Amino acid sequence: MQQIGSDHVHLTQLLAHEFASLPGCVGERPLKMSRLRELELKLREGRFHTPRWATVQIDGRLLRLDGQHSSKMLAGIDDDFPKMDVDILRFSADSELEVAFKFADFDPRGSTRSSGEVINAHARIHENLSAVSNNSLLRLISGVAYAKGLVEGNLVREFDRPRLLHDPDVQEFLLWGDSIAREATMKRAGIVAAMWVTWSKFGSSATPFWLHVRDGDEERKCASRRLFEGLLGLAATGSRSHDWDPRQTYAKAILAWNASIRKRSTRLSYREGVQLPKPIPPTQDEA
């Protein structure tokens, strides 16, 4: 990705309309009417300043990289079009991956790219991830990142998390875990981390256990049901004093996994500071 030029030009309504009509880059956020109203109010009150837009040339296509909302707002002004200039940055890219990373750079005050928006931009490069919901993407990637730091000793900082989406194993996990992680009881980083660890070690053999945890459909004494009830209770009360931190949640999930493999019940007892349990492999019948 390289900047190939920049233009400081007089802003006209025709220019705003042409820019707003450009196709957006991969992962561009949906147009928000509330954002348009906010920008128009700033314009009316004299608080709207010289906008900065950006385009990117890729595979012979010219795409809008930044400036969607401001150009759309200006294109729709009915009267008293403002007298001002506009800065347009021009980039070229060899791949949509480069575009996704550059997308995160444009974050003016009041319009910061959220973690979910940046992750979504990276995910939409891969057609196989199109079926994974945006909420699940952020939840699953956060859990995988937590597991890599907690269990594998490879800390993944927040700004590096989007890179995980380009790992084929992580992509496969996202597709596997999407329907499971959509439930409120399964949204915790510790739970997703345990899902990742058991799935990455044992593949689809992990599916029955996590479906039971999601649905709570086994007998009360079963380990998966105990974990389900614990998570359900936390979701219902929202009490911070009795909450499980991510490490506790991961440990309790693995304890439940191991008990389920051994066909035993469990109290999910884990004391802070104790070494984390390691998941045991499924029996041949379960594998």
Radius of gyration: 24 Å
Q: How many individual helices?
A: 11
Q: Could you tell me the strand content as a percent range?
A: 5-15%
Tally the beta strands. Answer: 4
Oligomer: single chain
Task: Report the sheet with the most strands, covering strand number, pairing sense and barrel closure.
Answer: 4 strands, mixed
Helix and strand composition category: alpha+beta
Provide the domain count.
Answer: 2
Share of helix, binned: 40-55%
**Which whole number gives the mean pLDDT?**
89
Keyphrases for this structure?
single chain, about 290 residues, alpha+beta, 2 domains, four-stranded mixed beta sheet, elongated
Structure description:
With 287 residues, this protein is of the alpha+beta class. It folds into two domains: 2-113; 129-261, no CATH class. It is built from eleven helices and four strands. It has helices at 13-20, 33-44, 68-75, 96-103, 115-123, 134-150, 168-181, 189-202, 207-215, 223-237, 246-261, and strands at residues 2-10, 52-58, 61-66, 85-92. Strand 2 (52-58) and strand 3 form a beta hairpin. Helix 2 (33-44) packs across helix 3 (68-75). It is elongated.
